[in-house]
Structures are given as C-alpha cells and as structure tokens.
Design a protein that fits this description.
Elements: E1 2-6, E2 18-24, E3 27-28, H1 30-38, H2 42-48, E4 59-63, E5 72-80, H3 86-102, E6 107-110, H4 122-137, E7 156-160, H5 167-192, H6 200-213, E8 217-222, H7 224-230, H8 233-239, E9 247-254, E10 263-267, E11 269-273, H9 293-308, E12 313-323, E13 334-337, E14 343-346, H10 353-363, E15 371-376, H11 380-386, E16 391-395, H12 398-411, E17 415-417, H13 422-425, E18 435-436, H14 444-453, E19 460-465, E20 471-472, E21 478-479, H15 484-512
Parallel strand pairs: 1-7, 2-5, 2-6, 6-7, 10-12, 10-15, 11-12, 14-18, 15-19, 16-17
Antiparallel strand pairs: 2-3, 4-5, 8-9, 9-12, 13-14, 16-19, 20-21
Helix pairs in contact: 3-4, 4-5, 5-9, 8-10, 9-15, 10-14, 12-15
Bound molecules: ligand BES, manganese (II) ion (MN) and zinc ion (ZN).
C-alpha cells in the first residue's frame, strides 16, 4: 500500500475515485460542496433522494459522477460535524478504506483530511489515515493455504492537503505513519505466530535479519553459556523448564552522537507461557503465545526508528525463552540468585516475566542508559485494573512517565499511570530469600512493578504493562502492535525537544558573540 500527498480541488482530480465526507443530516463537506457546485447540484440531488444521511460509517459509491473528472466518487458518512473525536475519525477512515478495498478501484484521492477533529491538526489526521488504512488492510494469513485475496485491492491512497504550503508537513506525516505502520505490522506478525514457530531462536533470527536490513543497526544474540557467565540465574531458571534454548537479544541502533546516552527498551520475550509447574488453566491458554508481545513491540519500535533514521541512540534488549512445566523446571519455593546478586524465592512459577526481565534490567546498566523502558505482558491484574484500552505505566522518574503518557495521548495509543508508592513494597517479603516473586492478590500490577523496581535503582526507568492492550481476544483475535505507536512517538518527541534545546543553545551563543 502506497501513500502520497497532493493539493488541488476535488472536481479536477483524474482519479479512479475521489473520497469526500458527508455530515449528518445530509450536509456536504467543503470538498463535497465543491463537487456539487461543479455539477450543478448533482450531490445535493443524491442527498435529497435520501440515499445518504451522513451517518457515521455509512458509505455510498457513485460511478461516473457528473461534473467530476474521476471515475467514481465515494461519499463517506462522518456523523455530526461538531466535535468529531479521535475514535470517530478512525471509524470514518476505517469505513472508507474498507469500502475502497472491496470496490474495483485500486487508487483513490481522499479529501477526508479536511474534516475537523477536536484538538487535532493536519499532521495528526494524515498520520492517522496512514496508520488506520494499514490497520484495516492487515491480514494474519501467512499460515493459511487459501487466502481470501481481493481481486482488485486498494494499492494507492492519495491524501490531499488544503494548501501547497501544507505539502511538506503532510509528507512528513506520511513518512511517520508508514514507519509506525511498518513497526506495528512486524509486531503483529511476530505476535500472531504460534509458539511452535515463533520460538526464542526465531525471535533472535528476526532481530538479526533486521540488523542486516538497516546499516545503523547492530544486533548481537547472547547464548546460554554467556548468560551463565553473566550470572543471570533468574532468567536461566525460567528457561530450564523448556527444550528451547534461551537467548538475550541485544540490538543497538546508533543514530545519535557517539557520546549520547541511549534510550533502552527492554521487552519480555516469553514465546509461550504455560505457567510452568504453577500451570495455567486450559481455557484460552493458546493466547499465551502472545506473551512475547513486549519483545515484538520493542522490535517494532526499533524498526520504526530505523525507518525514520531518528537522530538518537536506541538499544533494544530482549530476554527470550519459554515457560513450561518439566522435570527441570522451577518449582514453587525454589530460590535463585539474580544477576544483581539478590536472591529470589519463586513462590509462583507463573510469575516468570519479572524473573527474565530483572536480569535484563541489571544487564543494561553497562550501557549507562539515559532512560530504560521495559514493555511486558506482565500481569492479568492489569487487564482487571485498566481493561483493554490503556496500557499500564509505572516508573521511578516522573518526567519519563509523563513523557510516555503524553506520547500515548498524541499518538492515540493511550496509557495510564498506576502508583508505585513505597507502601506497596511491603507486600514483597520472603522468609527465606531477599525477595519473593509475587506480592499477593491485591494490586498485582503494582507489586510486579515493585519487584522490577528493585533492579532499576541505578537509572531512570518506566515499566509498561501491556497485558490488556497487546492483543484482542474473541472473534477478532489478533495482536494489536501496541504500544509501537506510543513508543515511536516518544522517540520522535525526544528528537524534537533535543533539536529545540540545541537550536536555542545555538541562538544563545550566537547572541553572545
Ligand atoms: N503472561 C502472564 C500475564 C498475563 C496473563 C497476561 C493473562 C495477559 C493475560 C504472566 O506471566 C502471569 O502469568 N502473571 C501472573 C502473575 C501472578 C502469578 C502473580 C498473573 O497475572 O496471573
Ligand atoms: Mn506467567
Ligand atoms: Zn507470562
């Protein structure tokens, strides 16, 4: 799918299809108005006959429209014009792209970017259009022998901007949207693959192939013997219960000055979580193939960063293994020594994510990170607390948490903070080791973060619990690629504020001279 930016009036577009909005009740958008004028009221007549009310999500396709140079015209219902929300705008784009894909048109020129969305600018609308279109057209059919291919699929979408002076802004938005969609799509593909194919070795191979694709990206994979040398007793204890060898993926993107401290992303890469000896119930256990979505989204954000060639140093670290029951697996009550030296009493082998993450979090100290963000499908409790609309965020550095929340708001991939107060730390007490791996039933997401916080004291850190957002269950079961948009937005925002400080510093020194 290809996107481009253009400016110009709708009646003059030589296109397979022009796409314009209609508001409720039967009100023409500016582009529809222009087409109406050019055709002596053709569209007004269509509306008067009652074929299009403008209801959100409804569409009407017209062939050989009068007064226009396009072969077709797609009217898209936008609902009431006032206060169109992010969600409504995504629905508008979704219905338009779904219809276009089912229609014979392979290319279309879209005027929906002119619709006012509350609190959002042109850049946002263009980027959302790209992301939404790619979302609609995504298929997880790599393992189906019969694919339900559309004979004439939508191949090209031309997005219009009001003025020539908006072209550059629009093109930047397309580039960002495409990079994010690329990252989301990688994260979905990896997430949707079953545990027997997407193994720890497979994840490592994918990371290595990304490293070959981008020249600023260097990927190294640490093997079991090296992990033993590093003393990663917590990580290795989880891997012991499986026939698949564990790997630690270390991917370094160098887009910034050599001295600049890196942003570090750590992703939970449990390629299947059966719970171990504390085995999970059978219902919906297949969904535990998604327990590597933290890893997948870290690779997705890394990909988006490479695509955009951001001027930043980014490090992605992924501990990956399986969590299965086996004669060699962890048993409840076992005590292991983490890389940090702290001993851990494993009271529940199903709380394995924190065991692999804690060693990765200790390992990244050696890179003197500016900030560390870990991303993990860590607790079922997070789904109970926040449902499936927001990722959970907790951290030891308020500005970092704030930046993540605000990247979530602007990208439309939202997150919500949970408290990481000292009081909760009291739930982590063990009679026999330094720390237990569970903190009781109450506040499960918070005590999981408390556990991680014992390993992140040396740097600014935030934790994202994506148990509720990484995939959807039910009829539309599938990975979402979240929070790739949030993480990429965070990186873009950082680069922008970096540049601002640099240019204002430049001005200050120039002023002094
Ligand atoms: N991967 C799961 C968390 C999970 C469960 C995510 C269901 C999404 C849906 C994690 O490893 C886990 O099993 N956590 C336990 C922790 C508990 C034993 C303290 C949980 O949430 O039940
Ligand atoms: Mn588990
Ligand atoms: Zn898990």
């Amino acid at each position: 799918m290809e996107f481009s930016i253009k400016s110009g009036s709708p009646e003059k577009q030589r296109s397979a299809c022009v796409v314009v909005g209609v508001f409720e009740p039967r009100r023409l958008s500016p582009a529809a108005e222009a087409l109406d004028k050019a055709s002596d009221g053709f569209l007004s007549t269509v509306l008067r006959r009652g074929d299009m009310e403008g209801k959100l999500g409804k569409t009407l396709l017209i062939h050989n429209p009068q007064g226009a140079m396009a072969d077709r015209m797609l009217l898209v219902g936008c609902g009431r014009e006032r206060d169109i929300s992010d969600k409504q705008y995504r629905e508008i784009i979704g219905s338009a792209v779904t219809r276009l894909d089912e229609t014979g048109t392979m290319e279309a020129t879209c005027y929906l970017t002119e619709i006012n969305v509350k609190g959002r600018d042109l850049h946002w609308k263009v980027r959302q259009t790209v992301e939404c279109s790619r979302e609609i057209l995504y298929r997880a059919d790599s393992l189906k022998t019969k694919k339900d291919d559309i004979r004439r699929p939508l191949r090209k979408l031309i997005l219009t901007v009001p003025r020539r002076s908006d072209l550059a802004n629009g093109e930047r938005a397309v580039r960002e949207g495409e990079a994010i969609a690329e990252g989301v799509s990688l994260a979905k593909d990896l997430g949707n693959l079953p545990g027997n194919i997407c193994t720890p070795a497979y994840l490592a191979k994918q990371a290595v192939s990304q490293g070959k694709k981008y020249n600023k990206l260097n990927v190294e994979v640490l093997q079991q013997a090296q992990l033993e040398k590093l003393g990663m007793g917590a990580f290795l204890s989880v891997a012991k219960g499986s026939r698949e060898a564990p790997h630690l993926i270390v991917a370094e993107y160098k887009g910034g000055p050599a001295k600049q401290k890196p942003v570090v992303l750590v992703g939970k890469g449990i390629t299947f979580d059966a719970g171990g000896i504390s085995i999970k119930p059978a219902a919906a256990m297949d969904e535990m193939k998604y327990d590597m979505c933290g890893a997948a989204t870290v690779l997705g954000a890394l990909t988006a960063c490479c695509e955009l060639q951001l001027p930043i140093n980014l490090l992605a670290v992924i501990p990956t293994c399986e969590n299965l029951p086996d004669g060699a697996a962890n048993k409840p009550g076992d005590i292991v020594t983490s890389m940090s030296g702290q001993t851990i009493e494993i009271l529940n082998t199903d709380a394995e994510g924190r065991l692999i993450l804690c060693d990765a979090l200790t390992y990244v100290e050696r890179f003197s990170p500016d900030v560390v963000i870990d991303v993990a499908t860590l607790t079922g409790a997070c789904v109970i607390a926040l449902g499936r609309h927001a990722s959970g965020v907790l951290g030891n550095h308020h500005p970092l948490v704030h930046d993540l929340l605000s990247a979530g708001k602007s990208s439309g991939d939202r997150a919500w903070e949970l408290p990481l107060w000292d009081e909760y730390q009291d739930q982590l007490k063990s009679n026999f080791a330094d720390i237990p791996n569970i903190g009781g039933r109450e506040g499960g997401t918070i005590t999981a973060a408390c556990f991680l916080s014992r390993f992140t004291k040396k740097y600014h850190w935030a934790h994202m619990d994506i148990a509720g957002t990484a995939w959807v269950s039910g009829e539309k079961k599938g990975a979402t690629g979240r929070p790739v948009p949030l993480l990429t937005q965070y990186l873009i925002d950082r680069c922008e504020s970096q540049q601002q400080t640099r240019s204002s510093k430049g001005k200050a020194t120039r002023g002094k001279k």
